[in-house]
Structures are given as C-alpha cells and as structure tokens.
Amino acid sequence: MAQQHVYSFGGQSADGDRTMKNTLGGKGANLAEMAKEGFPVPAGFTITTDVCVHYSKNGGEYPDGVKEQVLAAISKVEETMGAKFGSDDNPLLLSCRSGARESMPGMMDTVLNIGLNEKTVAALIAESGDERFAWDSYRRFVQMYGDVVLGVERDEQNEDPFETIIDEAREKAGVEYDYELSADQLKEIVAEFKRVVKEQKGRDFPEDPMEQLWGAIGAVFDSWDNDRAVVYRRQYGIPHEWGTATNVQAMVFGNLGDDCATGVGLTRDGADGKPGFNGDYLINAQGEDVVAGIRTPKRIEETFEKDMPAAFKELTEIGERLEAHYKDIQDIEFTVQKGKVWMLQTRNAKRTGFAAVRIAHDLVEEGVIDSKEALNPRRIPADDLNQLLQPIFDPAEKKAAADQHLTTGINAGPGAASGKVVLTAEAAEAQFNKDENVSLILVRKETSPEDLRGMRVAKGILTAQGGASSHAALVSRQMGKACIVGAQELQIDYAKKTVSVGDKVLKEGDDITIDGFTGEVFAGLVTTSPSEVMQVLNGEMKPEESETYQRYSKIMGWADEHRKLNVRANAESEDAAEAVAFGAEGIGLCRTEHMFFGHLDEIREMILAETAETRQKAVDQLLPFQKKDFTELFTTLAGKPVTIRLLDPPLHEFLSDRHLEEEPGLDEKLAKIAGVTKEDVHRRVSELHELNPMLGHRGCRLGVVYPEVTRMQATAIFEAAVATKQAGHEVFPEVMIPLVGFKTEFENQAAVVREAAAAVFEKAGTEIPYTVGTMIEIPRAALRADEIAEGAEFFSFGTNDLTQTTLGISRDDYGSFMPQYREMDIVPADPFQTIDQPGVGRLMKIGIEGGRSTRPDLKIGICGEHGGDPKSVMFCHEAGLNYVSCSPRRIPIARLAAAQAAIAEG
Amino acid sequence: MAQQHVYSFGGQSADGDRTMKNTLGGKGANLAEMAKEGFPVPAGFTITTDVCVHYSKNGGEYPDGVKEQVLAAISKVEETMGAKFGSDDNPLLLSCRSGARESMPGMMDTVLNIGLNEKTVAALIAESGDERFAWDSYRRFVQMYGDVVLGVERDEQNEDPFETIIDEAREKAGVEYDYELSADQLKEIVAEFKRVVKEQKGRDFPEDPMEQLWGAIGAVFDSWDNDRAVVYRRQYGIPHEWGTATNVQAMVFGNLGDDCATGVGLTRDGADGKPGFNGDYLINAQGEDVVAGIRTPKRIEETFEKDMPAAFKELTEIGERLEAHYKDIQDIEFTVQKGKVWMLQTRNAKRTGFAAVRIAHDLVEEGVIDSKEALNPRRIPADDLNQLLQPIFDPAEKKAAADQHLTTGINAGPGAASGKVVLTAEAAEAQFNKDENVSLILVRKETSPEDLRGMRVAKGILTAQGGASSHAALVSRQMGKACIVGAQELQIDYAKKTVSVGDKVLKEGDDITIDGFTGEVFAGLVTTSPSEVMQVLNGEMKPEESETYQRYSKIMGWADEHRKLNVRANAESEDAAEAVAFGAEGIGLCRTEHMFFGHLDEIREMILAETAETRQKAVDQLLPFQKKDFTELFTTLAGKPVTIRLLDPPLHEFLSDRHLEEEPGLDEKLAKIAGVTKEDVHRRVSELHELNPMLGHRGCRLGVVYPEVTRMQATAIFEAAVATKQAGHEVFPEVMIPLVGFKTEFENQAAVVREAAAAVFEKAGTEIPYTVGTMIEIPRAALRADEIAEGAEFFSFGTNDLTQTTLGISRDDYGSFMPQYREMDIVPADPFQTIDQPGVGRLMKIGIEGGRSTRPDLKIGICGEHGGDPKSVMFCHEAGLNYVSCSPRRIPIARLAAAQAAIAEG
What we know:
Two copies of one chain form a homodimer. By secondary structure, chain A is α/β, with parallel strands linked by helices. In chain A, 45% of the residues lie in helices and 18% in strands. In chain A, the strands form seven sheets. Chain A has an eight-stranded mixed β-sheet. Chain A has an eight-stranded parallel β-barrel with strand order 27-28-29-30-31-32-33-34, surrounded by six helices. A six-stranded antiparallel β-sheet of chain A has the order 2-1-3-8-6-7, with helices on both faces. In chain A, α11 crosses α12 (309-326), α25 (666-674) crosses α26 and α35 crosses α36. Chains A, B: Residues 22-59, 67-300, 312-363 form the Pyruvate phosphate dikinase AMP/ATP-binding domain.
C-alpha cells in the first residue's frame, strides 16, 4: 500500500489527531482533533509535511500516490458537505492553507474560494441567491490566486495592479469601501483582473477547478521556501527541513450577509493573561478582512453578544470546551455562516512572559493542570521570565515618540531606559558623583573593561559596534542594564562629543531613549518604571501588594521543587544582595579584578615593580581593599558557598599606551609612585602590549609569574573568611584558579593558596574548610581533566573562553562575519549565547568524564554567560553538572530552565 | 631477600652489564660490561639510581639493606685489589663518581682518594715509597672533600680559601706550579686545609674512612638535585625522576711517577668523524688535572706512542676492541699506573652532526653495523642533519672576534651570517634592489608578515623580542636563514637608527655577525661559507667532489628505504625547487597570501571595495599573478601533489592604521584607486581592526564573506593546472580550505571551488583530477572531524594554530611567561616546537579517528612547524598520518625522523 500522504477530517471524524503535528502541521492536527471531538469543522484534508519535503527536494514533484489520495479526499469532503467540487449547480468551494509544525504567522500563503469560474459563480449566485456575494467571492479568489499562485507583479510605479483596478472602480462608483461596490461593478473588476493576468503572464486565468486547486497546493508548498519564511525560521530556530503541511478545506462564508461574520479570538488575554474570551470580528466579511486593516474589527468581548447572541453563546462555549480539552489558552479562527459557527483553527496561543506566568499559575489554581505541567517550556519559555524584571515603557508613550525614532540596533540587554547621552566612562562617573539620581545612557563605539564603572552608573548602554556577545552586551546583562549594541548607523564623534544618525545630531547631555526589548533608539525621553517583581525584590513594594510577584514567586517555588541543578550567581559584593534576592544558592564566580579598577594607582605600582620585593610592597596595599570586599561578600552569602576567581585579565587592561595617551602626565605620576624613570614606565607598557590578549599573559599565568599577587589574594580571602566566621556567620570559600591548561599550573597556584590559608589560620587560631578548584576554559584543560582533577577539588566550565578557544573565534571580533554566518546558516545559533553542543559541549563531556574518572564526586559547574541561557542550562543538566552560575537577573530563568530540564528527563 | 641496591664489578666479572643503564647509570653499566669482557677495570661497585630516587624523596634516607650491601661490596673490592679500606699498612683508597642514565658531563660531583687520613697516608708513603705522592693525594682529597661534601664556602673576597692557601704556599716556596711543591709543603697545606674546615664548619675533618665514604656517596646523590644539574636536565629533556647512580671504585694512580699518566680519548674524531684514536693525556697526574686546565695536556695521537710505547699499544688495542664491542665511537677515560693501563670509563661518544653522519656511514662501510642501525637516533639525532646545511664560521675566526661579542639571544635559526645592520624591511629591499650581493642582517624588535620581503633578502635575522616560535624564528627556519631572537639586551632605536647593548652602539649600515647555532651576536664581520651539501644541492659543486654530500646522500637513501611517512614541503614557487632538491615528495602547504604582499595596491582595492561587483573587479586584477605563481609551482613539482591553501590572514595585515601612519598620503592614493573617499578608507581600516586577530576574521571566514576571493583563487589554481598539463606535465592540485570549524563552512567554500573548477575545465575542454580538503587547526574541527570528512577529501593538521587554540596560548605573546614556565617545569617543552602530545596530540587523535570513521582511506597530513621536528614526526608516524610537511630545509630531518619512527616500531 502506498504511504498515506493525505489525511481527511470532518463530519465528527478524522484520520489524524492533535498528536500528529510533525506530519500534519499544527493547523492540520488541530483541525483533525476538533473534528474528532465533535467541534463544527468544515470538512477537508491535510497533505503532509513529508510531501512538502519531497516536493521541495525534487523541484516540485509530488511523491507517488498523492494525486490519487487527494482525489479520494475531495470525494469525502463532497460527501460530507453535500456539494461537488466544480459542479455547475451545487459547487463545493475550497480553501488552501499552510500549516507547519510550529506556527509561522503570516509567513506562508493562503488561497480561498478555489473552484470558482464563470460557470460555478453562476451556480453560487443561484444557490445563495446573493449575486453580490458570489462576485465578491470570485473577485477575492482571482486576486489572491493571481498574487499567490500566478505571481502577478507590481507595475512601474510599484503599485499592485489589482489594487489599482479596485481603486479606479471605487472612484468611478463614487464609494469609499470595497463592500459598497455592486455585483456588476465586481463582475467588471473580475474581468479586469483576468485581463491583467493575461497581459502579464501571457495565459488565461485558469477556469478548471482542479487546475486551480493544484496551483494553490503547489503555491503553499513553495511558500515554505520564500525569503520571509526562511528568515523567520532562522530567527526562531525552526529547522528548514521540517516542511509545511497544506490544508484543503471546504469554504464556509462569513460574507453571505449580516447573519454572517468572521473573527479570531483568544480564550484568555495573551498580553497579561487575564481570563475571559476576547478577540476581533467583522460582520459580513471573509477572514482576510480582519487582518487586512481596511475595516476596523470590533471587539468580541464588547459587542459580539449584542450583535449575534446565539453565535456568541456557541463561540464562548466552544472556547471553554477547547481550553478544557487542550488545557491551555487557545487562539482560534472562526466563521459564522448564516448564524452557524464554524471553527477554522485552534492552537495554543502565543503570550508574553507576563501572560505566560499568569496563565500557568491560574490553570493550576483552576485545577486544569498540575505544577509540573505549569512549568512546561511550551507554557513558560524560561527566557520570558526576564520580562517580569525589566522596566517597561508605556506603549502609548512609545507610540507618541515614533517621530523621534533614530535607529534600531541589536536588542542585547532587555529593559527600557531613558537619560542623558554620555560618551565616556569618566564623564559618566563624574556626573554620577555630582548627582546619584542622574539618568545616563552611555553611548560608545564599543566598551572595554575600563568602562565598567561608567557602565555601572549608567541606566543603559548603547554601542555602534559589537554583537549580542560583545563586552557591552555581556556586562549589561550581568548588570541587568538595558542595552543595545551594533547600532551601525550611529556616528559617534568623541572629539565633537556628538552622536548622529544621518542629519539628526545629539550632543552629549541631550536626552536619548533605548528600548532593550526591541533594539529601538529614540531621541528624547520616554518615561519608564521598574517592574513590580523588581519593586518587591528591592523592598519597595510588599509581596502582598503585587499579584504578579505572588505568581512569579509561586512559579519559582514549583521550579525549585523539581530542579536538580543548583543555581548560583556570577556576582561581586555590590550585586550579591540582589543575587540572593533572585534565589542564588551561592556565588559561582566572583571576579576579583573588578575592584582593582578602583585602585589603579596601586595595581599600576605593582605592574611597574621591578623586583619581587617592591611588587610585594605594592600588592600589600591592595590587600585591605580585597579583604573588605570579600568580607562583605561572605557576609551577604552567609551559609552559602562562594567561589572566588583569582586575578584573570592581562595586566595591560590596567596600564597601556592608551592610558598614557589619554592622561597626559600619567607616566610622570606613575614613575614617582613606583620609584622608576618615565622611560621605565614606557618600556614596561610596551612589554605588556600583546597581539592576542585573549591568548596572552593572563589567568594563572599571571599568578605563576607573580606569586605575590596570588598570595595577596588568597590571604585576603582567608582573612575575610576568618573575620566573617568570627562575626558569627558560616562561610564556605572556594578558591578558583583561572585559565589552567596544565596540571602543573594548578599545582603551582594551589600550593600558594594553601600556604596562605595555613598562615592565616595559624595566626587566627581557627580553621575554615575551603576548597581549591579550577576553571576549565581552554581545550587542553578539558582534554587533561583527569590529571587536573588529581589536584583540583572542583571544576567550573568557563564557557565564554572555552567557546572562544574551541571555535577559534574571538567574541570581540566576530561581528565582522557572525551576522553573515547566521544568515547563511553556517552556524545554527550564536555560540556565545547558546552552548555549541556538538563542539564545545563534546569537549565539556570529555572534561566531565575525565574529571570524574579521577574524582567520582567532583563538583562541576559552569560560570560562563551560557549559565543563564535556557538551552544551555538544559544541556548542563543532561551532562550531569552540579550547578550553573549566571548573572543575578538570569537566576530566575536558570531556576526555571533547570526545572524544565529535570521534568523533561522524567 | 632484600632488593639488590649494590652491583659489584672487577676481576673479569660483574653483577651488571651494559643493558642495565637505567639501574646502574651509563658509567656503572659500562664499567660492569668492561669488567665482564676482561678489560682492565679497577674493582668497585655501583649503588643504583633507585637508591638515589629513594634518597632524594626521603630527605637523605637510604633504603633498607644499602648499608649492608655496601659493606659486602667493599669486602669484594678489597679481595680483588688485595688491599684493605682503612688499613694502616695496606690501605685501599676509593673514588666516588656519579653516573646517570644519560651522561651529564661536569654537572655532578666526584670525590677521589677516599680513605686517606693521618694513619693511612703514612701507610701510603710506606707502600709507594713516595712521600710527595702520598701527601699530594691527601691534599687533593681534603680539598675535594671539603668542597664537595663539607661545602666549604668562599671568603668575603669571593676567593676559594683552599686555593688561597695553595697560592700562599707557592709564593712562600717560590714555585710556579702545584707539582713543584714538596712533600713537607703539601703536608703543611693539608694542615691548613683542615684548619679552614674546622673554622668554617665547627668540626674536625673526618678521619674515619667509612664516614668519609658515606659522606662522598651522599654528596654524589645530593648533586643530582643541584642547580646546574637541574638546568642541564631541563635543557636536554632528561627527566628529573631518573636519579643518578654512584660508582665507588678502587683508586689507581696516574700520579705515582713518570711511568704513570691519566687521559681521555676518542676512538674516532668527534668533530668530523675521521677514523683514528685521539685524545688528551698528562704524565704523572690525576684525572682532574686534565680538565682543570692548569697544565696543558698533550695529544695522544701526537706524542703518547713516544712517551709510553707499551701503554700506547695497549690503549689503542683496547680502543679497537671497545669499538668492535660497542659498534660505535667510544669516549674513554684511563689511567696508566706504573705502565699498566686501567679503564675508568667508556661510553658512546657525543659527536657533531657532521661526525654523526660520517661515523654511521663509515661503520656500515666497515661492516660493523647495517643501514638500519646506522639510522638509530642515538647515532644521528635527526635535528643534527641541519648542521650539514648551514653556512659555518671558522672557529678560529670566531675566537678572534671574542672581544667584539655584543650579547647572546635564543638560537632560533641555525646558521652563520654576517652583514650590514638594516632596521626595516623597506630599507633591506631598497639596498638589495641596488645590489643583489649585499649582505644584510635585519635587526628588529620583532617581525611581522610585512617584513617578509625584507627577511627574504636578508642573510640573517636578529630580534630583541620573541621566542623560539616567534614570527621571526618560524619564517627564518622556513627560509633557512640564520636567526637569533629574544636578544633582550638589544636596544633598538628606529628613530635614531641605532642598535645598542649598554654603551656599545651600532648604526644602520655597520657590520654585525650572528651565530644562529649558538645565539651569539658580534659587532663586525666574521667570514662564512655555504656548507658542501648546500653547494651540491645548489649545483655549485658536483656530488663526486664532496665526500660529505655523498655520505649525506647515502644516509638519506637508507632513510627513504625505511620510512613509511611521506615528506612534503611548505613552500611557495620561490623555494619549490629547493624543496624538491631536499627530497620533497609534494607540497603540503603553499601559502597563497605571500604573493599578495607584492600586490598591495590590488589587494587593498579589494579590501576597500564596497560592493561585490567592485570587489570582483579588484580581485580579478590579482588572478594573472596568482595563475603565474601556481603555474611555476605546478611545473616545478610536476608529477607530485601540490596542496594550495586559500587566503588565510586577516585583511588588516594588508591594510591597517600602521600602514596609513607609516606612509603619509597612502589614504589619498587608496581612495583614488578604490574610488572612495579618504574618510571611507579610514572607516574601513578602523572596521578591520581586531582585538584578537588570531581568533578573528580570517581563514575560510574570509572566503565565506567574500566568495569572490575564493573563486578567483580557485580559478587561478585550475587555470594554472590546465596550462601546466597542456605544457606536458602531470599535475595534482589539492585545494585546502583553512580554519574550518563547521562542516557548513567547508561545504560553502568547497562548492565555490568546485564551481570554479568546472567552469575552467569546460572552457579548456579538459579535466584534471583534484581534491578539496581542509586544515584541521581549531579544536572544533578535530571534535567534528567525522562530519567534516563527509565533504573534505583530505585533512592537514595546522598544528601551529591548533596548539595556540588548544592551549589558549598566542605564540606571539608567550614570551612573557614561557621562559619562566620552562624554568619552573610547568611545561616539559616548548609546545610550538614539539607537539604537546597529551593535549594537542590527543585532539589530533580524536580528529584522525573521526575523519577515518567517515572516510577510512582519508589522507591526513600535518603542515605546522612541527612537521620538521623529529619528536613530532615520530608522533605523526605513530598516529597513522600519511605525510608530514615542513619547511624545505627541514625535509632531510623529517625524512630521517620518519625512518627512525618506522624502525623503532619494528
């Protein structure tokens, strides 16, 4: 028997059901399901996605058996609907719609009213008794078919010739709307349309209903590969090889009179999740009128009950039944023909993060689903939780600012921010020091670690260069700042202190607004406010005052019940309290160097020191600051583990030619501080210069060459730990050696750390349990993990650097090719956002296996940016990690993603 | 039974033999072998290396049983020698010498004449009838023991107090040499020595012979870990955990009168390999006198026969017997006591590359060994072949130039070169263009690809920065230039055009000389000439005129018989002929971008092009040059495969801010050429800037974004191939895609290449078989090799970049920590010289396994610098590679190393 390519539905039965989305697409599977469940569905059939794949691969050829199966399915439809396709007296009309496994709204093609021609239109007139309706339907059909199937093109003035004809007809008739045109006028329009087709395509408009149908089916399959659809799939990660199904269905008419209507609806509110049926409808119209925007639709929840009381009752009952059946908010399309409701589609509705949380929460409260099902990533994509944390613009305010729109960049840090343009970190700090309440948007070509303190005081970051994983983007997410990167139209002139797009020029100090959700940049101010959840977490609002917070909190509680991965924060003392508020179970990465940027004189003296002795002296000055920092951190995290990474960045981040150029006299000042000559300063700076800093003298390579630094940092850590313990708090320090590639490097540094610990403990007369572990962030470390685990008591995958080295791609430089790589499908996703599982992930697995072969209970975590990416968190769960660590604001996301991973595993 | 820690020898028998070097050390094993074979060896015993390891690990404790076994062994010696250790009337004196598995000449300690005290010295006088001899021996013993065992220290004036005493005694006695001192004077000296010991160490000099012996044994074991020995082992890759053996042996005396002598000898010449016994000796002396340099030794081959005819005859016979027994040139130590020859040591002699080749060759000719044995890496270390290819200084000339010595750097490119200092590549080229015979030494802080053409015309390269794998070092080896890098004392002032070390200043144009064998830099000229082998390969000498060449050629022939790896060259058209002369079986890496530096205008126009169309136009201008280049290359390599790598370096190597700064007006010129504005030029240059160029927009990432370049290069390759074929030569092009990490990248580029090939072949009406393969040079490529091999028809490991990414170390920047890493034993070797087998090697194996799982007959090679490193070649053989590719001058080394690997495998 030939493979089944065609699945029929209608008349309370169907070949398929809702489980068959892969074969029938979402629309087809749900039409089958509705038919089976007794919902009023016009009869029809679905041609499978496999046919699309075959068609696409074989230049438009159909697999064997399709034609015959379609003919048989048409017969079934004719039987069920009591009409005949192509009949001169009782014609069946068909629609033809795409329907992929995942909804791709508006991306593919649709043809309605298939089967109309000069003969059947006469039959339709006779049957409906409505000549205007019949000609209107025919006009719509010829227009759609001409566009979609025949590919009628725009004229020299870039006008749609069909629209031009309608415009002229309206003018001639002296009416404003299409629906005011008479049957005769529509008949004339049809003739004109056909003339255009003949002119442009050199052939007559097809009269044969069967030819029309196959044309429409082919067009739907073809539309899977149109540009829009390809771009959409790339953006949403939908595989190109899935293909779409084609749904052929008997037409029902919402345009047969005032007892007819067409509409779309939601069983709850998709924006905020509030219960209650809502949607748009139009009386006496066909489906495309609702979305076309020519007539303004009415709101179902406002007037439909009054307009069509019986249909309203039937529709809301159908909505309730569907929601009960699907156990989720439904997005439906319907037509009312002569008072009778017909269902054309139902599907789980798209929703915002706010709505997702509320609906999942409410459905549990209503007893429809349990808490485990509430966490299903289909219901709450973990990333969407972010929306609950970000300040928001009032949509009305933003709309009002449309004429202020400057440009659009990459939406790298979700959030809304308005403030004064500031072009340097120094200026930002200076202004902040004058007025802590100042709102600043730091606008730079790109940012570097220098700019950190400026970024910290800014409300938002905007850069002209860089991608979604550039320094600006990473740090913004870490800091929870609104951020837009890669806004390439921006011209930044540091000398003139201006930011311009074309002839629009903003000066430093002028107001600017960025919407980190969308990437939009506006001149001027748009007001924002923190989200309710943030207000509660910050203590500005009581939990009981915010229903949103209560729902968020409940969802988080369910997530914590199910997840197996621990979730920690990448945080320093400044943001540790926030991390704890977000639910961090420890610190997975405290970067010790952030603080050094506040003590540049001392670190520079250390860099310029020419002997171990003078270096020691310089380094000793930093100890009290580090100790204070660590004491604060340990106190905030009392009772929780804290992983502190030793100095990581290359020293030229603290002192380079750029610094000497930007600050005249700095060389002299430093020479005096360090007791060397100006020439020594310049020589040392030139020695520090590196061609590839990412692969240079950094990480533990610093500690090996300058053990004084490691010793100072370790001493500060353990003195802080002792002080914290003596203040009555539990403290669990974990010292992390960065950039280890050789077991010997680890041993060298671990020995210095352990010596420092012993010295501190002896002096204090107390001991604190601690561990010494390592980052796994270069491929060699993963490959030699078995050896390294002989000494290392924990591993933490530094997936940022591990991705850079495994892929040989600098995240600071990949903007010049990565956009094109994404566009050309060279890479399936940005590897700095989502772990490259086949490459980096394989290396991680080698590292995990190696490490645990030596130390079966080795604690392994991840502290790269990927720790806050849901897909990557799921991978970490599957790979057997103990924890993920991410920036504080990603913690809720990580908690939920970890639960989703555990639930998916079953 | 306790483990055997002590092995006796003497009296024509021994517990051990020559096979036991690991346990007995080289000296001990050969003493045992000689005793067994009936050579005259003073009796003694060897304490094993295992004891040293135990002693070293346990703070100077000996394993159980050692003390007893030593006592028993002493008894045996007493029996054999007919004397008694510590006896008042017939005292046995002992020597105590180190002896590791591999010879470490002069690095560890020796004590002679053990057993002498106030009583035994009297017995020695009585027995020998020679009071002066006895007191001289006692003086030597107290001095050596005081130095080595008791650690007597230098005084405030940094004078050795023992030497001061002798000096004073000589002055007082009015004599010039030690041996002119009388017995009484020596007796007084001994008393003074003992006083110094008492003063410095607060204890009497030990009188008890057994205490003396254990002190000496302990000192020898301790000396395994002295600084000198540790540094030596690091330099020669001898594992620290081996330990040394200690050899205790009955003293024989070369200082008992004029029928006594002591000496060292070689059975052939170690410098050039000429046959014939040769060496140094001293009449009436002890061993240390020969090396101490106080008396000038006489040459054995000149006067020994006349001085001591019987001993000469015995010695030369022993030499012949030893060589026949060991089948290799022997390095021996001997003492003649009262006319009788005693053997104190024999070992396979160290030899230069020249001698190694001659001796191996001659021993085969003499029928002593076969050709397989001749290739043993112990006989000809593959690296040493290099010496046959490099120009050389006359040693006398170099000695004469000693006062001109400026500094010493890292000997990165073996060879000798003298010439005028030139500080920029441009100046070098300009001078070369004026006079092709000018000798230039390019002196730079560091070099970059810009400097290539300058390097090509220079005789040698000297840099102040960079390590053995810096750009300068790599390219020098590639070009076969003498090169010294990292000569850190050099101060280079480009503005003043001077090179200085301290107050010695050379101006541009002054003469300078570099010895790339040793790293020495001299002011002024020292004459050099090309080696004979090079003269023959260059056609300047006929093969039959050079015995050296004939021997080299024979060795190469034997290597080719045994090796399984193919050997190819990394070469472009300029050096392809040389590569073939060296025996290249194909080109493994032709870098297509070298030629671009000669057409900067065109490549810069390409870079500045703003549309694919103008880019195509610019690129088209480069096609004829590339085609010409490839045609030359194919013609030179007729019948052999040629692997051509597509454009690899980032575009800023061709156009950067540095270029614009260095060449005023360049921006304007380029704007005109490319038809853009000056601002466009600067904007584009700033876009091209990268923070980590190594991980940036290069390799196939260029080709993916700019397919025009790939298409042009592929077209040039295939047009050249067609032209070469039409000229009657066989041609096998292999197109190599660089820096592939994703299968999709390879597919993208391979498609462009195959399209270009098809177009060229169709136009030409002919077809040429070709393959398209990839570099495996980033970890992801190795990890996904199975997928990549679906498309790639060959792999070539780019181990330079693979090492950089796998280790996360930039070879341009590792100078700041790698020297310290080597010194602290963090890394066992420079990973850019020898493949890091545990890390990079493991990844290579993953890549090989992956690639061959998809394509079992996949051809795999290596084209990194490691392809010319013997240890790495051996690894490549073991890993199952098909070929190695290296710079032309490393080909002989690679051929030999490949043979050695195949033979070692058995």
